[in-house]
Specification:
With 501 residues, the protein is α/β, with parallel strands linked by helices. It has 17 helices and 22 strands. The protein has two domains: 236 residues, P-loop containing nucleotide triphosphate hydrolases (Rossmann fold, 3-Layer(aba) Sandwich); 117 residues, P-loop containing nucleotide triphosphate hydrolases (Rossmann fold, 3-Layer(aba) Sandwich). Helix 5 runs parallel beside helix 6 and helix 13 packs across helix 14.
């Protein structure tokens, strides 16, 4: 029988008015990747915070490496061999890689002088172990988000953990960065470190997890071996019912009216010779590898960057995108891919977020018309299905799915005729994803024209009437839905096959 590293018995955690964990029992084997999944509110974060010493359970036992553990704070958990990397990174961008790895515990000599040579050497050993090829002296602000996350993981690994918890580790990573992370997880497993991997991404879970535990409403639902698990089974365990995650919305008849026409569009250094038509009521999906130029095209059409050459018609009239305000005035809206850094004002109320793109409409003589803003927010809370206590609730207190709905509502409140949505369901749970898919399809059925950018091919194929495939800054082809498959899209995106129109 495989040795058990961690056993949880009837872990229970109550907050005022909320039972966050309800007698959860499970175990983690030594040297396995144990995935933990569940919708927002399932109890995943509470469980991880208990294991990391950030919360103390009301009931239950934790047995780690054969000994009962009582974590009063994060230092207790760390000393016992538990490391955690939270979704929100805590690195210091003004310090070097080595300084981040050994933050607050730098090797010192007599007189408390930091032994920098020793610190760099130890950092290099860790980096070599996991095949990271940048310098230990490199300042972190010069690294991309994926490499910064690797540094945070190395910080946890440098403490020689028995158990490493990774909380939504790919939520802000590109495909290439995520692939690097997956390889790192496999190396951690090969060194005998147990990994608890928390994620909304079922493809990742089914790839990495040796076993998969499902939580729902704070309670344990079950644990399945990877080889016996299917995506549909996991979704049903998470939601409590069968859910058609990638339903067939049917084939939609193409409306002859063109809402957005792009001819020979070029932006030096980003993309060139991009041409397409977006019809009334159509969802035109944009697929391609990271760096293919999809987001660059979207941002340029919204006036966030200037075009070098080409022509654009919007609603039948010539359109030169100079600023976002110009785009909004002409009936075009853009939902960015990162709701937390460029999408929402998380420390502001829902009602304030919702009116930001059209603040001028709610200002009279320099004073904000608060009542009208609340009324508009209440309307879109209902229309979009945002679960919240009040329009005056802060955006940061919403779940990821409801934050994404709020971001959509901000731009839908402008009543655009053309909507660009970039990664509309990244980092949200299954139910919210289905709700947003249904919402976008309803908008298209009502006549809105939608340009949908997604790195998730099943989403592109489910939602799109046609699929535009980009590669290295060029639009290689546009496929009718009936001809589009994951294999064909990837072949075009990687240059193996030619596109079509």
């Amino acid at each position: 029988m495989t040795e058990i590293l961690l056993t949880l018995e009837n872990l229970t955690k109550r907050f005022p008015g909320v039972l966050a964990l309800d007698h959860v029992s499970m175990d983690v084997r030594r040297g396995e990747v144990h995935a933990v999944i569940g919708e927002n509110g399932a109890g995943k974060s509470t469980l991880m915070r208990i294991l990391a010493g950030a919360e103390i359970p009301n009931e239950g036992r934790i047995v780690l490496d054969g000994k009962e553990a009582h974590f009063r704070n994060p230092l207790d958990a760390q000393r016992a061999g538990v490391g955690i990397v939270y979704q929100e990174l805590s690195v210091f961008t003004n310090l070097s890689v080595a300084e981040n790895i050994f933050a607050n515990r730098q090797p010192t000599a007599v007189g408390s002088m930091v032994q920098r040579a020793k610190m760099r050497a130890e950092a290099c050993k860790l980096m070599d172990l996991f095949e990271l090829d940048y310098e230990a002296d490199l300042v972190l602000r010069n690294l991309n988000m994926g490499d910064r996350q690797m540094v945070e993981i190395l910080r946890a690994v440098s403490l020689n953990p028995k158990l490493l918890i990774l909380d939504e580790p790919t939520s802000s990573l590109t495909i290439a960065e995520s692939e690097h992370l997956f390889q790192l997880v496999e190396r951690l497993k090969g060194r005998g470190i147990s990994v608890m991997y928390v994620s909304h991404q079922l493809d990742e879970v089914l790839r990495l997890g040796d076993r998969i535990t499902v939580l729902r409403d704070g309670a344990y639902v079950g644990t399945v071996d990877r080889g016996q698990a299917t995506k549909d089974q996991l979704v049903e365990m998470m939601v409590g019912r069968a859910v058609d995650l990638y339903k067939d919305y049917g084939i939609h008849t193409e409306d002859p009216e063109v809402k957005l026409r792009v001819q020979g569009l070029r932006r030096t250094g980003a993309f060139e010779d991009v041409s397409f038509d977006l019809h009334k009521g159509e969802i035109l999906g944009f697929a391609g590898l990271v760096g293919s130029g999809r987001t660059d095209v979207a941002q340029t059409l919204f006036g966030l960057a200037h075009i070098t050459a080409g022509e654009v018609e919007l609603l039948g009239k010539p359109y030169v995108p100079r600023t976002a305000r110009d785009a909004i005035a002409r009936g075009l809206a853009y939902v960015p891919e990162d709701r937390k850094t460029v999408g929402l004002f998380l420390d502001m109320m829902l009602c304030d977020n919702l009116i930001v793109p059209q603040l001028y409409r709610f200002t009279k003589a320099g004073m904000l018309d608060d009542r009208s803003g609340r009324e508009l927010t209440e309307k879109y809370i209902g229309d979009v299905g945002i679960v919240c206590r009040s329009p005056r609730q802060k955006a940061m207190t919403l779940s990821g799915g409801n934050q994404q709905k709020l971001l959509l509502a901000m731009w839908l409140a402008l009543e655009p005729q053309v909507l660009i949505v970039d990664e509309p369901t990244r980092g949200i749970d299954v139910s919210a994803k289905v709700e947003i898919h249904d919402l976008l399809r309803r908008l298209a059925d009502a006549g809105m024209s939608i340009m949908l950018i997604s790195s998730e091919l099943p989403e592109v194929l489910t939602m799109s009437d046609r699929v535009a495939v980009m590669r290295e800054g060029r639009l290689e082809g546009i496929l009718p839905r009936k001809d589009a498959t994951q294999q064909r899209i990837m072949a075009i995106a990687s240059g193996v096959a030619a596109g079509g129109h």
